[in-house]
Each structure stands twice: as structure tokens, then as C-alpha cells.
## 1
Amino acid sequence: MILYMKSNRLLLFLLPLLSLTGCTDTCKETRTFRRYSPVTFTAAQVRQGIQTEPPQALVNPGKIYTKDQFLFINELKEGIHIVDNRNPSDPKPVAFLRIPGNGDMAIRNNILYADSYMDLIAFDISNPTAVQTVKRVPNVFPNGSFEGGWWSFDPASQLLYDQKVSYVTETTETNCEEGVAPTNWWGGVFFSAQTSAAVNDKSGGSVTNGVAGSMARFALYDNYLYTVNQSAMQLFDIKNPAEPQLGNQVQLGWGIETIFPYKDKLFIGSQSGMHIYDNANPEKPSLLSVFQHARVCDPVVVHDNLAYVTLRSGNQCGGFTNQLDVVDVTNLTSPKLLKSYPMRNPHGLGISFPNLFICEGAYGLKSFDVRDALNIDRNLLQHIEGINAFDVIPLEKSLLMIGKDGFYQFDISNPRQLRQISRIPISRPSYY
Amino acid sequence: MKRLFPYLLVLMAGTGYAQSQFTQPRYVNYTEFGGLFGRVAYGPSIAQTVENRLSFTAQTFNGVQVSRQLAIGGLVSLDWYKTALLTPVGAGLRFDLIRHPQQNVRLLAIADAGYGFAWFNKNSTGYELNGGWMVNPGLALRIGKPSSTAFVMSLSYKRQSVDVQKPLSGVDIQRDEHRIYNRMCFRVGISF
């Protein structure tokens, strides 16, 4: 009898526990996305804004560039942070170069080329704390995009139409199943800020170039600066680096994202594929072939006869493909897809053979051994999660990585165990 | 279930060796299958949709009877949620609520916990499912002679958490889902 009473008590204890929970599945989806609102500037407003300022904190970093142990970190649409990196464990910001509408840069000798919405500007950076404007080439870029938001310049009215980007995080209750994609789709726009590639060219002599990431839209080769916008490649003659002259324009088709010079070839990543240009005549690159793929975003890096292309959906890129394509470019006129590997949301990538580093956006940084091109997925050496990775530049022994949560430097002497040397954090409490 | 019942009866009838007293630890097994019953409510608060959910579940518990009342052991389950095939692996106990476990009908408290792995789950394109923790407390009825194969029926509460990365599209930067399956779990099976 006593026993039964005891078990009854237990039952009384357990049953409310069961009923309290209600047996209802709860599924919460947290989604972070971009929202755009239109803004208009006059050309004068844009052009007056250039100046050198004291160092500032990173807020919304874009691409990275490095030269002579100095780092150049783009602050999207705002300018460039100049950082003294002679001691990689303690990088010291030295100045902030304010350039309205800046997203890309390239450096030859002591001349920094930067875009400022529709203009290209050349700066003398011999003294990083007192940067001088040496030349402005006006109205060379008709339109462009930052983080999926478009801008366009109307030369007649001298007005610049831009879209301001804000980040929104929403939590919604779902039915715990694989529902359809959320609404507010922004097709037909592209991502602007990504690319990394060790630049080798034969400009030779006393000329020194910096190193860009795989998301770069600027490249230096021989006596030319190559810039790609959404639909064309614009060349600038920089025989005299301080005096860039407008050069040829090559129409590329729509959705051009990144440019990667490798040997005497130009690999151009676009939304529809990878374009390979022969650059034997640097003044007039000629199209060799186009490697077609789904309509997504795709930075490219190349090592020997293999090109590594990451395809990413999301934002302006459209598509639902997130993968790494390994393309055999032994025969440059007919590149062949060797294999595709699924990825999460790959952005920039960098190769320091045999290691390939892939930025997975909000899903961290991956390090692969790519000696066996057909089994790259089995050779994931490390996946650093919990950081936001946008673009990388692999140097000899270190890796520069920029993400929405800051700038990182890793020691890559052991690719299985990247060691963080330093970090420049962003000033916002949360990066979205 | 109806079709399986005769087989279960045969199994139960075939093992009638009595072992009345607890002498030393012995192997016990509970193998059950059944359903996970629940609901889901979703949508904005002014336009909520409520749907019923039913998923198949199977579990095998293998352990030792360490005392007259208590058995402890490890367990492996398979839970077929609609978009997640999970394999919880964990530990649990079976506790006799009635002190003299000599009756033919025994009431047991069950408490299982573990981690639901997504080993056998195949993701749809763009989705990536990661497993999560599972707890499963409840009550069971064991019907059959002590120390022989018996019929088991259990009613429990099962809570399983899962994290899913969802495909990014349009303007998305990050899109993750945290799922908690809160289910009433009804299972039947055999024990020996």
C-alpha cells in the first residue's frame, strides 16, 4: 500500500512536468540581412571629402591590401586605414585616409590608387601620416555597388545616387521544416568587396607593387592598372605612376566581380563565369575563354594549371550555389571543371600552395590542403568558427584576414593549427 | 503494430525461465519503437498556424540490473523528424517504482539523456543540420514474468535540440535555426 502511494506521488510529480512542456516544437530562425535606403550626393560633396585624418577604429571594413609591411584596410565607402605592420603581433594604425565612396585600392611604388565613387585618385603615400593627392581622373566609373547596394553617377546633373546599407537581424518562429527562402530578394546586384591574390607581374625593374586580396577589383600589371566595374575593364596607363592616364576599355559583359592577374593572364570572376584574358599585350588584353557556371558571385585564385573559384549565393549575387570549383586551366582556351565541392557561403580565398584558405563569411575560415585536387573536401585542415571571414591574403608565413568583426593575422607555419598573431577589432559591439 | 504483436507474444512465451531473487548484476535490454507526438505553432502572433507532428522513433537500451530496482545502461535511438534524421546516443536508467519487483506488471521510471547525432541525416541543398542534446524522462509498464522477456509500454517526454544552417539568398548574411522538438513519446517493445 505504502509502495503504491509512493509511486502515485512520483506520478503526480512527473505528469505536470509532462504537461507543462506542452509538447510543442519551438523553432526560431535568426536571420541577418541587408536593408537599403536611397541617398543622393552632389559630385562636389564627394570630391571635397578627401583628407588624411588621425587613426580611427574599424567600423565596416572591406578589402585589404598590403605593401612593404604596411596594411591598407578599406573602410567601406569611407576611406582607407593605414596600419604599420612591421611588428605583426602589434599592428599600429598610423592614419586614416578619408575617401568618400572608396572600395578598392592598388599600390605601385609609393603611389596609391583608390576609387572614389566615379573617380580614380592617385595619392603619394611616401609619408603615411600626410598623404598627398597627386592626381584625380574624373568620371571614369559610371556605377558600382557596395555590399549589394548600388550607386550610379549622372555626369549631366553631377548627382550621385547611392544606397545606404543597414543590417537587420530578425528572429521568426518557423514550422521546423525546410521552408522556402525568405522574401525581399534582391536579384541582379553584385558584391563589391572581395578578392585575394598574390600578384606577380613582369613589370620588373625598380617597380614594386602591393598584394591584394581575392576580392580585388584593381590589379597592377606591367605599365597598367586594371580596374573592373560591373561590365567593363578600364585600363589606366601608369608608366609614370603619379600620372595615371585613362587607357583602353574592354567590355566584359555583366556582373564582373573580381580580377586576378596570374603570370601574363588575367582571370576575371564574374557572376556568370570566369573570364580568362591573355595579357601578352598589356595595353589590350584579349579574351581567351569564358568558363561558364551558375549565376553567382565568384572570386578566383590560380596556382599553376588550376584555378580555384568560389561561387556564392546571397546578396546581389543571386543563385543558390555555394561551392568551390576547381578548374583545370592547362588549356587556357578551354578550361575544364575538375570538381566542385559544397561550401557554406564562400567569399574571398587565397592560395599559398599547398594550402588554400577560404573565407566562409559569417561561418568562419577554412584551411585546406589542395595537393590532391580531387579530394579537397577530405583535406580540411582546420575550420575556425566564430569569426567572420570576408577576404584573405596569404603571405609567406602569415595570413591576413579581414572580416566584419575585425582584421586578423594568423601564423600559418602549421596549416592545421593557425595561430592568431594579432587582431584589430571593429569598434561596434556587434558587427551586424 | 498489430501485425507485430503475435511475434512479440511468441517471443514472450518462449522465454519463461524464472529468476526470482536478485543475486548479481545481469544484462537487461529494452527495445522499443513508437511515435513522437507533438505540435508546432508558427507565424506572426496575429496569424498563428498550428499543425500536428508525428515522427517515428525506435530505441534500444542495453544495460545491467545493478540492484533489485535499478538498471543502468547505454542507449541508441533513431528519430525520424520530418526534416531531421537523428541518432541519439546516451545513457539512461530504469527504476522500479515498486520495491518488490516480483509482480508480473511493474511500473518503471525511465530517464534517458544523450546527444542526438545527425550521422544518417541527408541535408537538402543549402541546409546543414547539426545535432543536439536530448532528454527523455518518463514512465514505463513492464508486463511479463520477472526476469523473462516482457512486453514494455512507455510514455515519456522527449526534448531534442537541433541547430540548422539554412540556405542564404537575396540579401541574407546569416540564417540559422534553433529547433527544439518537444514531443510526447509513446513506445512499445520488449524487455529481457
## 2
Amino acid sequence: MDLKRWLARLRAAGGITVSQLRHHRLRLGLAIIGVGLAVLAMTLLAGVGVGVLETGEQQFGAADRDLWVTAGETRLTSAGGGGFENSLTNSRSVATEMESHESVRSAVPLAFETVYVGTNGDGEFQTFIGTGVPTSGSVVQVTAGNELSGDPHYANGSYDGERTNEVLIDEETARALDVEVGDTIHVGGSLAVARNTEMTVVGISPTFERMLGAPTVVMPLSELHQVTGTTQTEPATFITITLEDGADIDTVQTSLAKDHPEYEIRSNQEQLEAVLQEQVLILAAGGTLVVLALGAGIALTHTLLTLVIFQQRAAFGALTAQGISSSVLILSVIGQGLVIGILGGIVGTALTLPAVDLLNRLAVAVVGFDGLVQMSPAILASALAIAVVIGTAAAALAGWRLSRTPPLENL
Amino acid sequence: MVPPSSPIPLVSDDDPAGVDFESPTAPSPVVRAANVTKIYTRGSDPGRLGTLLGRPDAPRVRALENASITISTGEIVGLAGPSGSGKSTLLHLLAGLELPTKGTVTFQETDLETLSTRERTRLRLEHVGIVFQRFHLVESLSARANVALPLVELGVGKRDRRKRATALLERVGLGDRVGHRPGELSGGEQQRVAIARALVTDPTLVIADEPTGELDTETGQRILNEFERIADDRAVVLASHDRPTLAISDRIVRLKDGMIRSDGNK
């Protein structure tokens, strides 16, 4: 008998739910859009967080390096007029030493320095990140024009070889300077040097712009050291090591660390983590954004559902006054919350994929940063689950509060 | 009809302590208010911290003062008085929608104070029909679904619910409007749906607060005719300051400033 009555109540609640949703279509539509936007906000911000980590991992993976050698932090510093803190000095000889280690195929120093760049010697100069790469063993992707022809200026440390005066730039730099392949630009570690150093753009490369998230000018390592006046110390930001096929990374890492205790030797994953740890403020901001997105999504969904339910308080007050039990009313509003949560969640997740595509296109167009937002089925499923759970719970809570309110107060 | 699951201790003809519901000579009291006072608090009390901070006590409004009234089966009782006189408050107390601050309200020999909120809700479902001034129908449900809804709680089967709701709607002249939603009905038709909803559980007491307040004169008169028709085997209490509404009452209770000033036949 009780079961029969409960089934009748459930059917009645279901009937009220369906009729309310069908009758108030505008309200239903707006609630679904609201929950959908909350879901979209959650997925996109979570996608940005994942994008930062995934892109980092992909870049480290794409670099095709096994180990990374640093001599301390590689963050930006104000010392020497500003730039990277390239604390790994005598990088050429250190790299040569490491290359002679068993199972190491190549050890390549990479240097990042802040440089002044302008299109003519008398005009304005802008600061960019100058990247120095030895042409052997470096992986620089070129999307237009040619690769760097070599690093003859080094000439086994004498720095008296011929200078190529070649640079690769990325699309953002090309836009900022309004130059293209074949044009000449002025580059130097100081304004005086920049005015007197003319280099030719030989190609377009997105490699280091993607790695650093900032516009770059890529040139042979010796020529970067030359224009920044650091040929004596040959500083590098890090040395990247590629191992022989089949070599055990952990074993070589341990062995190198034993031979070179003054350097940090990290695997791809460890280096990524170290870089991220150095960017603690950015990480904290990203984390805060994700938490805020989650909180805002939950709050928005909760508020929307509460509003939807409280708009029905007069009818519910009349029904309670008439003797309808609160269980029917609560079941009815739970049904509404469930439906709005599911439909809003589906709309939000459906909008996510085109929104991710659009944002990534925008990011590439504006800052040249590819893969800014990355989506995974887990993020979509979590956002959908949050919409359904919060929608249902918020509606249940609002219904419970309505049922606790004396009926006359709702009328 | 009184459902078997009623929480009210029902009295029968062979119960010497009970009241004879069927007696044609002595109408049985359905509900009785004895020396009831109702005081409302506007806002919340300051609490311990608020008192320490010097927040004054929330103002209190005495809506009803020491009122006593008995309503019997077959009676139409009109509650008259100006706005703020306590009509609605007395109506709500009689229906068990609120409890008095002082005094007792007894519904069929049961002191409402002794019932839990859930039990009072059940009591209203089984014994009280309520008609509001603004109808308060569920906009999304048809007239028949609105009327049939209380029967779900009583465990009445779907077919019976439809049958009884349809019969009641026919009785109030809306047999051809059963599938219409409130928005598709006029004010008078909505009020008749509300009356049908109030009657669907066959209550012993029907209360109505300004039932013709939102209606034109002609429609209002049709509604009043309905109340006259339904009063034969139950008690009806109407709160109104509308003369035609009070004219159908067997007895008029006049209130002013929360106190009953007179109680008698017209």
C-alpha cells in the first residue's frame, strides 16, 4: 500500500516536473543556457590549465632530448640590464665534456638572452628573446624560408670565423617588426651593438616561441654570444643531451650527476616540473582561475536552480496549504533540477569543442601560442557530472527550504 | 468521506464521548477556537549578541485578541471587518495553517497544538478545503490535474482521480474546460476550479479568504451560489468585507482591531 502510494506520488511529481518544464519554456531555456555557460566556463578554464601542462610536456617531447643540464635557475633576472639568468658558463666545453660520456650521442648548449631588435639602425628598437643554437644537433622547425646555414663564427672557440648574420624569427616577431624572409634587421645585446649589427631573416620558426610563449629571434650560438658580449664566458641557459639508442636514461642521468655534481641534470619530466616550479606565480594564478571557475560554475548553477524553484513558491505554498506533502513537491523540483542539469551540461559540453577550437585559433593569431586550451574526455565528463549533481542538489535544497517554510509565507 | 488514514480521532455514532455528526437537530462543531490570541513578530529577534549591541526587540503585532468561535456542520459563517481586523488570521488558525500564540483551536475534538506540522498538513488534506483570493492554481497543470492533485496524497487511483475531478468540474459548470490550463480560463472559471480543488477530498470545513475579491459582480455571484450549494453537509467560513458575500452567510462574525465585536445570525 505504501509502495503504491509512493509510486503514485512519484508519478504525480514527474507529471508536475514535465508540465512545469513544458509550460515555462523560456525559463527552462534560460536556465539551460545559464547552466551551459557555467559548464563552458569550467571546461575552458580547466582546459587552459591542462593546456599549460600538456603543451609543456609536448614541447619537451618534441625537443627530442633525453636530459637537460642547468646550473641553477633559468628565470628572468634584472641583472645586467635584464634577461635570462644564464648561469651555465663555459657551456661549449661542458657540452663537449658531456658528449664524451658513455651513451651520450650529443650535448647541445642553448642560450636565451634579451636582445634589442630594430628594422634600421637609426629607428626604434624593441626587446625580444634572442636564442642561440649550435647548428649541429639542434632541432629547430622551419615553416618558411631556410634553416640556419651553420655556426662557422665559433671556429673552435677562436670566434674569428665568418659570421653568417642569419636569423630565424617567428610569425609574431615578423608581424611586430613588419618584416619577412629576406629582409634585414638589426640585433644586439645593447643598443650600440644593435645599431651596428645587421642580420638577414632567412626563415620563420615557431619552435622557441612555442617553448617560451614569447616572440624570439634565433641565431647561431656564437653570434648570440658575440652580439651580447659573452664570448669569454659562453653562458647557456641549459645543455640538452640526446642519448644513444637503447641507452637507459636513469643510468646515464645518475652517472652524469656523479661526474658533474655542480649541475642539475634532469629528465624531460623533471625539467618540466622544475620550470613550472619556477613559474609558481603563474601556476598559482592558473590554479586560482580553475578554482574560481569551478566555484563560479557551482555558484551560478546553484543560484539559477534556486531561482527557478523559488519562482514556483506561490503554487507550492498553495499546494502545501491544501495538504499536499512536501515529498511530492521536493521530488518534483528534484526532477526539474535533474533535467536542467543534464540539458545544461549537454549544451555546455557541446559548446566546449567549438569554443576550444575558436580560442586556440585566436591564441595562435594573437600571440602565436598553439594548443593554449586542451580538452580531454575527463574534463568534459567532470563538468557534465558537476552540472547534473549541483543542479539536482541545488533544486533539492531549494525544494527542501520551500517545504520548511510555512505555506502562508510562500503565498 | 473521511479517509481511513486520518490522524484525527474520528468519533462515530456509537461513541458516547464523541459528537453525533449525523444528528439533524444538533449540528456538530467542526472547529472551535477558544480565547485565541495571535501575535506576529516583524523581523527576527536580536538574539544574545544583538541584545548586547543594543538592538531593540523586533516589533510585535497583535493580530487577534482573545477570540472565541465555534463553527458547525451545515453553517456558512461570514467573517466581516475592515482590513487588518484579524479576519484572515482567524481563518488561518481555524484551518490549521497557523497555531495561536495563546488559546486553543480544536478540530473535531483534537487540539491542533498537539499535532506535528506533518499531521496538520495531513489534517488539512483530509478535512479542510481552502479557496484563496488569488486562486493559486498550478499554472502548468490542466484544470482537472489541479483538482485531482490532492487525491494523489490520499492514494486514490488514477482513474478514480480523473473521474472525481471531472465530476466536480462539471458540478461547478466547467465540464467543457477540464483540459484547459489556468491561463486559458477567466478569473471566475479559475476560482471555480479552486473551489473544485477545495472540495475534491470531501472536506468537513471549507474556508475562503475574499473568494470574490478579484472577480466582477456577476462572476462573484456565481461563485457565491457555489458556496451555498456546497454548504449542506459541511461548514463553510468566508472572510470578506464584501456585502454580497456576507449576505449568503447564516451567521456573521464581525471583527475589529483583532477582536470579535459581534457574533450572531443575520
## 3
Amino acid sequence: MSLFGTKRLWRGVHVPEHKEQTAHLPIRRLPFPPLLIVPLSQHAGKPAKAIVREGQEVVRGEPIAEADGFMSVPMHAPATGRVERIAPAPSARGELTTAIYIRAYPGASQEVLYGSDQDITQMTPDQVIAAVQATGVVGLGGAAFPTHVKLKPPQGRTVDTVVVNGCECEPYLTTDHRIMVEYPKQVLHGTRVVMRALGVERAVIGVEDNKPDAIAALLQANADRPDIKIEPVVARYPQGAEKMLVKVLLGREIPSGGLPADVGLAVFNVATLAQIGDLLPTRQGLIERVVTVTGPAVSKPGNYLIPLGTPLRWVLEQAGCTDQAASIILGGPMMGPSVGSFDIPLTKGVTGVLVLPKKDPPTVYPCIHCAACVDVCPLHLDPSHLGLLARKDRYQDMEEIYHLNDCFECACCSYVCPANIPLVQYFRVAKQMNRERKAR
Amino acid sequence: MIEFLMAGAIMGGIGVVLAAVLAFADKKLYVYEDPRIDQVEGLLPKANCGACGCAGCRAFAEKAVAGQIAPGKCTVSSPAGVAAIAELLQIDAGTEEKRVAKLACAGGPHVARHRAQYVGLSTCRGAALVNGGGKGCSWGCLGLGDCERVCSFNAIHMNAHSLPVVNEALCTACGDCVDVCPKQLFSLHAISHRLWIACRSLADGQQAEADCEVACTACGRCAADAPGLIQIVNNLAVIDYSKNSKLTAAPAQRCPTGAIVWFDKEKGPQRGLEAKRITRQSPLPVAEADLPLQSATTTNEGVHHS
């Protein structure tokens, strides 16, 4: 608690949370699907290189692909079975990406037998970074940025504080919430691992105040250690964005186009740290993650521990989708991508599967210059003007004069727009056009 | 009275001094410009389309006068216009084979399946960013007409099956459609390239055919028919246009799906006799047979206001 009450984000929006459907449900495992599709590119950076061949038998937890350079992470077999083929598979982005298809043995055990003990307290920071890379852990909050890369700040930057992101401001999602309630020790252990790798003495865990049980669980697990501070913040969207959270918690502003390391910080998601805390002591790899499967059209919503590479079809069948389901979103409703195929495998970056009922698309009206979007934009951009420029195809001006690239597509502007203008979609198109123009 | 005269004298004096400066600058800083550049520019169509590779018509005129580019490189000008420029500059008009944009897809909604229905910003660019647009074939035309909108020469029109049709007479090969298509389906080809693979799908034959009835299934009949001219690369037939003069309509005749077409001078793209007939006019239904679900892609703006 600061002098002026709980810290909070002043811009952004308050969206209906819809978390009550799954917030109280404990994390539960799903059975293995008959066929797992493990894409080699589940993270930002270079795709991994397969080290198995077709027909080979793999054991749950065994590495099946190795990191291709520093900006890459290895993959591990999510289930014991046989590699059926290495072939292109559909992805949430739309294009086909190479994947390893693993036919799981019927009755294969959920137990992970692969791995060996290692003592982190005896390791140098570089060894910890290598160990984190070997686990294959990436940012599990959705961006899937390789975690070990963040542990090596760029030349000339020093990190003094670790910020742990337990906000989960997206509606519907409760994965981070449940992880904090059920695995507070792993979260704190993971935090100490990254503090050790970065050589910092201080960490702050920011948790939105709509999760009092998570705050209580973390405080209880951290009762006698003052180096990690647990800080409640007032719930507001998009507080879980790292730029926002850093500003709210520590009052530091990440410069345009910069990284948290530019202001002496490193930001990690709680689920990421819980996985590091869980996997690192036994030298295991990331083979499953917690995914919230929810929405009005799901009959058995819940927080499921899903093996990576499980096809969406299997998840929806297990969770029981009713036939009024129409729109399936991987992640939260504000930022998550909508998918159009049931054969997409769930990857490391998927935080939730949201099934929404059919809804007629809203009628789009012309901009009335009400500036509602300007008021909510957490980055102080002018979405209204950017939208007008996008309609005129002036993509270069959007980037060079109106700071388009600072936009992280939180969709607050689209959410509040009374004219239903799909602003964020315009911005995504503009960014894509700019990327292609530069590549030419 | 004297004040009036003073004011007049001061202003007049300033005027004289500045006039002298301007007169000096006009002589000293004069840049000679070939008057023919203006004349050539006047004869150009002023489309500023960039098809010639220059940054607009003025740049083309400068290059033409300098002898760095043949007037015939301007594909937008009429032959008479090109001849007039050549006459003015006393140089050879040069010949540039007319190029046109060609679409490497024939899968309208009546033959190609959609996995999901796209709802949102009604442009191909917007749709392509939402899980690739929801089409079964991830290489196929989305049919929302970005190319039609971007074409400055009115050469592209969407037909009844939501596929762009290029009017060869109006197309100037400026390349705007090539840049705007999110699936990179357009490419510029010499008009003499009559044989054309109207498919970009790299999926294996069975998958390609399940997604689209006019897909190239890489069966290899065309390659057998025209050895050395057509090759199957990555599940797709590829024509070697360096041997264009040897190409005939025979591969198009043999293609079982009709993915290979022959651009007839009068009748437009023609499919072969062996291609299976498609009489369906209405779009195929959007459905996944084995799940009790209708999948629909929405934009991220599909947030519940409650």
C-alpha cells in the first residue's frame, strides 16, 4: 500500500471480467490426445531444429528439438509415443509451420521420468541462463518470448529489479490466478532463480486486487522473506502489459521502442516463473501448460493442464462445446487471435481457449471525433487520427508521425469506439504493410 | 508631406536592392534544364504508376532525354505517344513487350472450401491477419477485392465468384496489385506467356483437392506432357518461361483439375477438355462435418459488451 492507497493504472478501460466461471476451479489434467502436433516454432525467434526422425520412439519429457542459436528454445516430447511424421501443420497465424506429429501410446503415463537433479545454488548466472534455455521455457503470458534471453540484458544495461506480472487483466482468463493460488512456492522459487541469474536483490510481484486469494497465498508462502514484495494493484485493463505494469508499480516509463532493461527492469509472467521454479531443479523441459477453457458455449469450463501440441479439437471435445459456439479465440477476448481451424495445436503462448456464441458483426459508422479512444489509449496515442489515416492507406505517415509502432494492440480504442470502427485491425494491417514496404 | 516621400523612397529603395539581388541570383544560380524534359513529360500519360521502374513520369522524362531509357518502356503510353516521344528525341522508340498482372488462383467460393467464416474489416489485408482468412487453402485468393480497389487503371474487376479478373488491354503492369495482395498471388508476366498455372497451393495432392476443386494436385501429367518445360516443385507445377516459345496448350488440355489454363487472345483463360466440369454457381457451405460446431473467425473487436 502506498501513501495514496493501492496503485492503479489511470488510463485503459474497465472490462467485465467474466472470470467467475473458472476462477474457483482447481487446475486439472486433460488426457492425452491420440495425436499430438508439436510445432517447431512456438516462440518468438528462430524455430527449433528437430533431432528426432520419423518412426522414432520418444519418452515424455525427452528433448525432440534443439535450440537453433541463442534466440531459440528446445522442444520436449509432451507424451510417450512414436514420431509419426515431421510435416507442415496449421498454426494460429494462418500459415503452415513445420511440426512433429507424435502418436501417443494408449495408456501412456502422465508421470515424467526424464530428468535429473541439479543444484541451482551452486551455479553461476551463465549456467543458470543455459539451464533456463534447456527447459524450453518462454513467456507464458502470451508473447512466447524466450525467457533466457531476458536474463541476459543488452550491453550497457543493468537490471536492478525483477517485476513479476500476476495481473492477468484480460477478461475470462484465470490461468495465472490459479497458478498463484495453487503453486505460490514455485512462483517464488522461479523468481529467486531469475533474481540469481540477473544478480538483483529486489523483486516486485504485481497482482490485481480482484484476486485476493492469490495475494493471500503468495503472502503466506513468502512470509519470512522481505526481498520479494507482493504488491496489489487496482484491477484495470491493460495493466498486464509490461509497459503499463512497470509504470504503475515503479513509476518508470519504458522509452518508445525500448525494452524494460532500458529502465533497469526485467519483467516475467507468474506462470513462466512457476514453470522455471518447477522444472529447473529436476532438469526437465516444458511439456505442458495451464490453459483456461471457458466461454458461454463451454459446458465444462476449467483450468486445464494441457500437453503442448494438443489439437484444439481435442480440447473442445473434452471441455464439451455446445453447438451454439461460433467464435474461438486463443487467449483473451481483447487481444487473442481468432482461429478458423480445429486442427491448430495449442502451443506455449496460448493462455486460454475462449468459445463465444455467434454474434452478428456490429455496423460500422463513420468516426464522430468523440475522442473516447484518445482518452483510454494507455500509450497516449491518437487512435482516432490513426484510424482515419489507415482508411487513406497512409501507412508510412502513421508510423513516422503518429507513432504507430508504439501501439501494442490492447484494443481499448476498438472497445470504447461508439462507431464500432475496427481500429486495432486497421493498425495491424498498417504494421504489416509497413513491414512489407521496408522489406522491399 | 516629407513623411510620405520618405516612406516611398525607403520602400522603393528596398525594392531596388532586392530586385538587384534577385537579378544577380537569377544569373548566378541558373540551372540549365533541357527544355525537352518538359516536352517529353507533356507527352507522357502522367499516371505516375511506376511500371517503368522510375519514380514517376518526370523521372522517366529525365531519363529518356538522357538516353538512359527507351520511350517504349512506358507501357501506359499508346504506341502513338511512344512514337511521338521517339520522334521528338530522334531516338529509337525501343520495344517493350507488354506485361500484365496474372492471378495464380482460380479458387472462388464455389470451388474452394472455407474452414470458417471471416467477419470484420472487409479487406483481404485485414482478413489475412485473422488466421489467414479462414479459407481451407492457406495460399488461396480471399476475394475481398483489395486489388480491385488499388488498381489506378480500372483494369481489375471482381467476377461473380469473387475472383479478380485482369483486363489485359487496360493493365499497365504497374505492380500495385502485386504489392497489395496479402497472399502474393499476382505476378507480372509478358503477355506472350499464354500457359499459366492458376494455383499456388503447396499442400500435398489429397489435401489440395479436398480444399479446392481446381487446385494443382501435382499429379505430374503436365510435366510428362512437356518435359523440361514444366516441373513439379514442392507439390506444384512450375513453368519454365525461358522456353516460352515451345509452350503449347497441350498441358492445359491434360490437366485433370483445370489448374493449368491457356490464356486465349479473344476468349480469355481457357481450361482443358479433360478438366472436370464445375457447374456449381453458389458458394460451398462453411462447415466442419465431424464436429457439432460452426466455426467463425471474428475480429478481436468481438468483445462482449454486457
